[in-house]
Design goal:
Catalyzes the conversion of epoxyqueuosine (oQ) to queuosine (Q), which is a hypermodified base found in the wobble positions of tRNA(Asp), tRNA(Asn), tRNA(His) and tRNA(Tyr). The chain is of the alpha+beta class. Helix content is about 30%, strand content about 10%. The strands form 4 sheets. A 4-stranded antiparallel beta sheet has the order 1-2-7-4, sandwiched between helices. A two-stranded parallel ribbon has the order 3-10. A two-stranded antiparallel ribbon has the order 5-6. Strand 8 and strand 9 form a beta hairpin. The protein is globular. It starts with a helix and ends in an 11-residue tail after the last helix. The C terminus is likely disordered.
């Protein structure tokens, strides 16, 4: 490790916070030995549903040195997306909080490139790659190794300071940095609020999710019709789901984000149930320009809305 590694590490963490990231942790770029059998079993049990891409690049998911030549460090970062306000009409079809504003891929990638550029400018010739939920990187494993938090029973990374309403991102670089202490303590304890609250029983056991039953998967990733078995179970979720996070006691520490790009699109929070059920493709295109909701396309959102029409509106649990 270079003599200046301590200074470089602090320099990078300070800049990450200046750019608006909530937390920044460092882990040594190494093989994820503990995660290998877990990932293999999860895939073997078909818990990834129709997301066949999860089966690809198995080796790259477990070893960042295959993704980045001579990788030395994995910088894990979090970006808060918890909104100050939420949808007003309690009967309106619901969108996951992370999708209120601009697509997080665009926002975070820009910040990561700025951080990488800063590193190269201040330190010298450093090579690396930026990752935001769109490449074979096990971001939760790296966040845990970097001391960001622990993997909760709902499989999300949870921070004692801020809860879990944040995005995860990584910079994998060929620079030796001082690694943080991995997070080894599970602070969920005997709490099972997320497991109990999931209306489709998607949380099979602590940190094991069956995507085939997850409302987020069913409303976003699934391209076929939503199975009839979920009638009466999905409530009024039309894009994503926040139930397991809403009931998590640790999210009492969540604070509104300060990222201008994540502010809700105009009129989004004011739309009533009938506004959503009668949405046109033109309104969809204007409302969700540069939004993560475009992933499901207009056709997919209409499918979800049609499914909602068949279901009574269920009150979504919240944390105590």
């Amino acid at each position: 490790m270079r003599p200046n590694s301590v200074n470089y590490t602090q320099l990078i963490k300070d800049e990450a916070l200046r750019l608006g990231f909530q937390q920044c942790g460092i882990a040594k770029a190494d093989f994820l030995e503990e995660e290998a059998p877990r990932l293999e079993k999860w895939l073997k049990n078909q818990h990834h549903g129709s997301m066949s891409y999860m089966e690809n690049h198995f080796d790259k998911r477990l070893d960042p040195r295959i993704l980045v030549d001579d990788a030395k460090s994995v910088i894990s970062l979090t970006l808060n997306y918890f909104p100050e306000q939420q949808q007003i009409d309690p009967d309106a079809p619901r969108i996951s909080k992370y999708a209120y504003g601009k697509d997080y891929h665009l926002v975070i990638k820009d910040k990561l490139f700025q951080l990488l550029g800063f590193i190269q400018e201040q330190i010298g010739e450093v090579s690396g790659r930026a990752f935001v939920d769109s490449a074979p990187v096990l971001d939760r494993a790296w966040a845990k190794r970097a001391g960001i938090g622990w993997v909760g029973k709902n499989s999300n990374i949870i921070s004692k300071k801020t809860g879990s309403f944040f995005f995860l991102a990584e910079l994998i670089i060929d620079l030796d940095l001082v690694p943080d202490q991995p997070f080894t303590t599970d602070h969920c304890g005997s709490c099972t609020k997320c497991i109990d609250a999931c209306p489709t029983d998607a949380i099979l056991s602590p940190a094991i999710i069956d995507a085939n039953k997850c409302i987020s998967y069913l409303t976003i990733e699934l391209r076929d019709e939503i199975p009839a078995q979920f009638n009466q179970q999905m409530g009024n979720w039309m894009f994503g789901c926040d139930i397991c996070q809403d009931v998590c006691p640790w999210n009492r520490f969540a604070v509104p984000n300060q990222e201008p790009e994540f502010q809700p699109a105009p009129n989004l929070l004011e739309m009533k149930r009938d506004d959503w059920l009668d949405i046109t493709e033109d309104v969809f295109s204007k409302l969700f320009k540069n939004s993560a909701v475009k992933r499901t396309k207009f056709k997919g959102l209409v499918r979800n809305l049609d499914f909602i029409k068949q279901n009574p509106v269920n009150e979504t649990p919240t944390s105590e």
